[in-house]
What we know:
By secondary structure, the protein is an alpha+beta fold.
Amino acid sequence: MKRIDIVYGGERYSVGGRDFEALRLEVETGLADGPRWLRVNDGEGELREAFLLLGPGMPVAIVPVPEGDDALGDGRWEDDGAPIEEDTR
């Protein structure tokens, strides 16, 4: 696995070098028992540490990104995450 993307508060973060199931359990435990801090990478390229607060009722998505996946599909997205329809005229 290349990395694990995390969507939190509408922003995208990532972690590398972690087992997906172990991270899933850590997030699940934090959401159920919270509060708990989750260390993540903020930004792309250069590592910039950030900490996300996990607790009951906080929506979090974790997305495994396999090797070779560019994580953006065709790279064309609107601000709300919906694919942009390509003009075929």
